[in-house]
From TrEMBL:
EC id: 2.7.1.39
Enzyme class: transferase
Record-given protein name: Homoserine kinase
Gene that encodes the chain: thrB
Residues where ATP binds: R80, P81, S82, S83, G84, L85, G86, S87, S88, A89, A90
Length: 291
């Protein structure tokens, strides 16, 4: 039996819609695989009651199929589904890494990205690599067409997860079909700033570069209390705040010294609105680990 710990991820980072992603040190899914004549999946842990175990309906079933690697696959969910933290992507990335090793397929982590993304397509209706890429490769990733660029970095972040769910399908339904040129120009400038911030491990630049005038205003409207929590995080010292992935998780970047205050301010702001939440004080970290 092989075991993989696959980290949660945050995609988009505001200005990098469907392009940017980061691996988070916590939370994570644990995927265990054992050779079998046909694929069987069991799911335990956070939100497991909402995750189908039918291999034709589970992200990891699609991964096993793509790698021609039938297995008994146990998924222990540390990442709640529909959270904006790449829950299904972590399972897919973990399964891809584990099954590749179990069957000696010899594929590199980069080569596993499109295979894990096939699993994602099953859940969201479209194959996005912006969550599976950081879960496999770690750090900050830029997905551009078939190409993935990876940068190691260790920026402190807080992800505040309210007790609400937003499905990726619904969140994609509010993405505008087109954008004004001035908004595109502003967002490109921010994305470039953020990228430099990642390479320089600079939370100030990353936070400034997270602003997005195109997708985030539409997406944030789906999250009860977003504006108050956004404001509270900035007041507590966050350098940037945005929707994590498709939401409802909210991602804040900050200096390490402000992390506890930012987390407390976000939870308190949700609390004042009658919304229960929990905050992960974490960092951008490594990709999936094979044990
Ligand atoms: N970039 C994707 C989105 C991430 O925001 O819809 C979720 O797959």
């Amino acid at each position: 039996m092989l075991t993989v710990r696959a980290p949660a991820t945050s995609a988009n980072l505001g200005s990098g819609f469907d392009v940017f992603g980061v691996a988070l040190e916590t939370p994570a899914d644990v995927v265990r695989v054992e050779r079998a004549s046909e694929t069987r999946i069991t799911v335990t842990g956070a939100g497991s009651q909402y995750i189908p175990e039918d291999p034709n309906k589970n992200t990891v079933g699609a991964v096993a199929e793509a790698l021609d690697a039938p297995a008994h696959i146990e998924i222990d969910k540390g990442i709640r589904p529909s959270s904006g933290l790449g829950s299904s992507a972590a399972s897919a990335a973990g399964a891809a890494l584990a099954l590749n090793a179990l069957y000696d397929r010899g594929l590199s982590r980069t080569e596993l990205v499109p295979i894990a993304a096939e699993g994602e397509a099953l859940v969201s209706g479209e194959a996005h690599s912006d969550n599976v890429a950081p879960s496999l490769l770690g750090g900050f990733t830029i997905v551009s067409g078939d190409h993935v660029t990876q940068v190691d970095t260790s920026i402190p972040v807080v992800v505040c997860l309210p007790d609400q769910s937003v499905s990726t399908r619904d969140a994609r339904g509010v993405v505008p079909d087109s954008a004004a040129l001035e908004d595109v120009v502003e967002t490109v400038g921010n994305a470039a700033t953020l990228t430099v911030g990642m390479t320089q491990n600079d939370p100030e630049l990353v936070g400034r570069g997270m602003n997005d005038a195109i997708v985030t205003p539409k997406r944030s409207a789906l999250i009860d209390g977003y504006d108050r929590v956004h404001e509270a995080a900035l007041e507590a010292g966050a350098t940037g705040v945005t929707v994590s992935g498709a939401g409802p998780g909210i991602l804040a970047v900050c200096e390490e010294r402000d992390q506890r205050d930012v987390a407390g301010a976000m939870v308190d702001a949700f609390d004042a609105l009658g919304v229960t939440s929990r905050a992960y004080q974490t960092r951008i970290g490594d990709g999936a680990r094979l044990y």
